Description:
Blueprint: E1 15-19, E2 22-26, E3 30-32, E4 34-38, E5 47-51, E6 57-59, E7 64-67, E8 72-80, E9 85-93
Parallel strand pairs: 2-9
Antiparallel strand pairs: 1-4, 3-7, 5-8, 6-7, 8-9
Amino acid sequence: MLLSLFPSAPQLPTGVTVSPKTxxxxxxVTRQLTAxxxxxxxxxxxxxxxxxxxxxxxxxxxxLVTAQPKQGQxxxxxxxxxxxxxxxxxxxxxxxxx
Length: 98
């Protein structure tokens, strides 16, 4: 049996997807977004979340989006530890949406 004296290289993420991709929310409503990091055996599946306009929609470190009183559109970006990204759109209106 041959054993390696060197540890194997870490398995970095090769992709990330966020769902749902389109979110139509009424003001002051929340929606949970989910990030899927690939491959399943990636060593570090940590992601960060960011909103393009926090006056329209905020996002916390777990992907929970909160529609703000201001109507409009915000792009939510999820990012892996090695810089891969995906986005979801949040449209905020004064009407209940799906």
